[in-house]
Amino acid sequence: MPSNEYSILHNDQLSKFSSSGEEVLQLFQLWQKEHGREYGNPEEESSRFKIFQRNLLYINEKNAKRKSLLQYHLGLNKFADMSPEEFKKTYLHEIEKPSKWDNKKVHDDEDDESCENLPSSVDWREKGAVTEVRDQGNCQSHWAFSVTGAIEGLHKIITNKLVPLSVQELVDCDPASKGCAGGYYFNAFGYVINNGGIDTEADYPYIAKNGTCKENANKAVSIDNLLVLDGSEEALLCRASKQPVSVSLDATGLQSYTGLG
């Protein structure tokens, strides 16, 4: 996704703005226009502007501490008028403990004889195994995006066909998860296995809210087991060099994330 869809200004330019002053108000108004943000009354707009100011100060402080261009940077993305508490309540939640089912295998280093001489890095985007970035909206469906992304990548590696899969089917149909109230990818992988497959995004599109499960959904792509890593960096490196992997990430400090470099 182009960087201007994340931020209205290059992140290096933000440092010239303090957290107060007429220029910051103009920056806020430019940001509103860029993101189509309108408020119900002057009081709400004033409140959002104050949050915007605090976020701008935080962004500049964090970016100033970057020691390398390889580190991620922060910017004025679409969450710039949300407080950290509001962002966390809307988009983040505690990871649920997975339910138990039979089609899983815990990774054992002895099972993998091909974990030696691994490449220093692998970018599955360059290999065409990653679909475009999509917006989950105001639905806590990150767990479902993680599952479809991993299966899409594996399907591409095996068949040489990159097929966007239905996040919405997992939101609507996985009985062990809670739709837009959150879920866990461990359970969602189990749903795909037990269901015999998952539909495509084209035939079961994402609507960013809970819907009714389509019982006649196609089973376009299927998997037959899940390999659970032991949590070590070595296991993750080994598996990620072979296929995209689902992981959990604490995104508490990434509200203003805009990319690397």
From TrEMBL:
Keywords: Disulfide bond, Glycoprotein, Hydrolase, Protease, Thiol protease. Gene3D superfamilies: Cysteine proteinases. The keyword Transferase does not apply. GO terms for biological process: proteolysis. GO terms for molecular function: cysteine-type peptidase activity. Residues 118-261 form the Peptidase C1A papain C-terminal domain. It holds the Pfam family Inhibitor_I29. CDD domains: Peptidase_C1A. Residues 28-87 form the Cathepsin propeptide inhibitor domain. Belongs to the peptidase C1 family. This is Cathepsin propeptide inhibitor domain-containing protein. It comes from Lupinus angustifolius (Narrow-leaved blue lupine).
